[in-house]
UniProtKB/TrEMBL annotation:
UniProt protein name: Coproporphyrin III ferrochelatase
Species: Arthrobacter ginsengisoli
InterPro entries: Ferrochelatase, Ferrochelatase_C, Ferrochelatase_N
Function field: Involved in coproporphyrin-dependent heme b biosynthesis. Catalyzes the insertion of ferrous iron into coproporphyrin III to form Fe-coproporphyrin III.
Keyword Translocase: no
One Pfam family cited in the UniProt record for this chain: Ferrochelatase
Xref: SUPFAM superfamilies: Chelatase (SSF53800)
Protein family according to the UniProt entry: Belongs to the ferrochelatase family.
EC numbers, comma separated: 4.99.1.9
UniProt subcellular location: Cytoplasm
HAMAP family listed in its UniProt record: Ferrochelatase (MF_00323)
Enzyme type, top EC level: lyase
Chain positions recorded as Fe-coproporphyrin III binding sites: 79, 148
Catalysed transformations (reactions): Fe-coproporphyrin III + 2 H(+) = coproporphyrin III + Fe(2+)
Organism phylogeny: Bacteria, Bacillati, Actinomycetota, Actinomycetes, Micrococcales
């Protein structure tokens, strides 16, 4: 889609006078929920069409797409993400029903069926007019927040539903208890598992290290994450994306030590880096970090996929395959902690996030486990810039940033080619 003039672009944006304090929106009478995700192929014949969708407009030939499709090919051409979203949708529906809340849940994807534009049309055709969106991305950056908001803005424009269907979005939930507590349970269990196996091998006091893993992004995008031209905030390492992960990891470690008496050194690492070699991305890569730790005498590794909602392809391949193979090659005892998936606390937390925003069944309290939260309902002016051009955007206070030529087109085009990039 070509860049739009600012007046067109703000049609789907949120007016500042709709906001209450701290970027909150007043509760509304929403009549439907949209679960939005990345999407993924569901068979070998889907892989190349799916990758064409992911890289649309980049001019990347099929030969190159085939070269990066190996992770899907090795898993039957199927990404687990669609089935996981079916299960999450069913879990949300069951939790809503258990609370006596009559809100239908629809599901739409960016890059594979069911596509977001058709889902919005289905919602409208079913008679719904006010929709609250939940995404499968918990943190703040362009790919995990603003791009979803653009997807909705563009879809509303292209389908002719702009002005007919209202779509808002729940806050980023990186530090919501429903997202964090499954990681606390999993990290405690993973740490206990690694220590038990080391003890069984006769090395009960062997050093153990916890690695919190998340998706790497270009450092330019990291710097734009959480930025607000209107309300400047200072973030650790100058990025809300990085700061949110560090704060959540700190809380996980604090709780594990408090509840079990056990702890271990930890660090934040990245995975799925792609793009041109000359373009800087967040580091260190998880495999490089594992090799470095082994060289320092560490014998046990606990891998926590802190950046991810479910065990989709990036977790299955980048962690369960590549990272665990690196550990095995180096003779390290390793355990990979589960993602929240359909954990009862996560599903209940998603429904709590919905209830924060609804007039009926409203939950006024907005729990958060770090000092960074609760995050905004409506993204602040200048947040998570789109450096490739302006698009219609919902749930944002403006869309007047992001206009201009992308000096790193190869990075933009190949970033999405990381096989399994189906969480952002």
């Amino acid at each position: 889609m070509s860049p739009l003039d600012p007046q067109s672009a703000v049609q789907a944006a949120t007016a500042l006078n709709e906001l209450t304090e701290a970027g909150r929106m007043a509760p509304k009478d929403y009549d439907a929920v949209l679960l939005a995700s990345f999407g993924g192929p569901e068979g070998q014949d889907d892989v190349i069409p799916f990758l064409r969708n992911v890289t649309r407009g980049r001019g990347i030939p099929d030969e190159r797409l085939e070269a990066v499709s190996q992770h899907y090919r090795a898993n039957g051409g199927i990404s687990p993400i669609n089935q996981q979203n079916r299960q999450l949708k069913a879990g949300i529906e069951a939790e809503l029903a258990a609370r006596g809340i009559e809100l239908p849940v629809f599901w739409g994807n960016r890059n594979w069926a069911p596509y977001i534009p058709q889902t919005l049309q289905d919602i409208h055709d079913a008679g719904h007019r006010k929709v609250l969106m939940v995404t499968t991305s918990a943190y703040s950056c362009y790919s995990s927040c603003r791009q979803y908001r653009e997807d909705i803005g563009v879809a509303l424009t292209d389908t002719g539903l702009d002005g007919k269907l209202e779509v808002d979005k729940v806050r980023q939930y990186f530090d919501h208890p429903g997202f964090v507590e499954p990681f606390i349970e999993g990290t405690a269990a993973g740490l206990a598992d690694v220590r038990a196996r080391l003890a069984a091998a006769g090395t009960p006091d062997a050093p153990v290290h916890i690695l919190f893993a998340t998706h790497s992004i270009p450092t330019r995008d990291a710097g734009a994450a959480g930025r607000s031209d209107a309300e400047p905030r200072q973030f650790e390492e100058d990025s809300a994306y990085v700061a949110q992960h560090l704060a959540t990891g700190t809380e996980v470690i604090r709780r594990v030590e408090s509840e079990t008496g056990d702890t271990a050194p930890w660090s934040l690492v990245y995975q799925s880096r792609s793009g041109a070699p000359h373009v800087p991305w967040l580091e260190p890569d998880i495999n490089d970090a594992i090799e470095d730790l082994a060289g320092k005498g560490v014998q046990g590794i606990v891998i926590v996929p802190l950046g991810f909602v479910s065990d989709h392809m990036e977790v299955v391949w980048d962690l369960d395959t590549e990272a665990l193979e690196t550990c095995a090659k180096l003779g390290l005892t390793a355990s990979r902690v589960p993602t929240p998936g359909t954990h009862r606390k996560f599903v209940a937390g998603i429904v709590d996030l919905i209830c924060e925003r609804t007039a009926a069944n409203n939950i006024a309290d907005r729990p958060h486990l770090t000092k960074l939260g609760p995050w905004y309902d409506v993204c602040r002016p200048g947040c998570c810039a789109n450096f490739r051009g302006e698009k219609p955007t919902i749930a944002g206070a403006d869309t007047t940033i992001g206009i201009g030529h992308d000096p790193y087109p190869d990075a933009a085009g190949t970033a999405a080619l990381a096989a399994g990039q189906d969480t952002l």
